[in-house]
Amino acid sequence: MKVNPKFPWEREVIEFVRTEMSEVSPSHDFEHVKRVVGLCEFIRRKEGGDPEILRAAAWLHDIGRPAEERSGEDHAEVSAEIAEDLLPRVGFPSDKLGEVTHAIRAHRFSTGPEPQTLEAKILQDADNLDALGAMGIARCFCAVGERGTSLESGVEHFHEKLLRLPELMHTETARRLAEERRRRMVLFLEWLEKEWRMRS
Hints:
Pfam family, one: HD
Number of domains: 1
Number of helices: 10
CATH class: Mainly Alpha
GO molecular function: hydrolase activity
CATH superfamily: Hypothetical protein af1432
Distance between the termini: 47 Å
Helix content: 55-70%
Strand content: under 5%
Mean pLDDT: 92
Radius of gyration: 17 Å
InterPro entries: HD/PDEase_dom, HD_domain, HDIG_dom
Structural class: mainly alpha
CATH architecture: Orthogonal Bundle
Shape: globular
Keywords: Hydrolase
């Protein structure tokens, strides 16, 4: 992942996240974080927003996942607390810190506060986009394996949450991408249903 030369703090943050998330379950691992950073950047180029706030929030949005996996703590809140401690120590601008932590706290649409800033909306959109399309299918069934639940529970998750995500997007760019990814998931589910009927 390229480091933005305008942001000298970024290299240290990336290495911190890479190390801390090395043992996290594959459905929410460092590769997921990298994809969210990339999606944030793609959306920001179309919609605007402060790139420094967005990159800091995106890199750190899931840094609390290890705590959640260990003890059930809310990873968004833990991630915001870690960001509040880490970013000042690596030279991140203090006047932008509050917007970073708000975006992190708001990225989890099911339990977090409503995103109030453009950067928070973009981060939530990017995180939700990574739950859609071919990648979303892969991550969903990764999570099924991680939790030891059934394939049926994974299919239920498509209908209960994943297929509804496009209507929750905040930005026009994310809505367009989400609808495209949703169509791939619907096609997958149609084929899965046909093959499911083959069982005795």
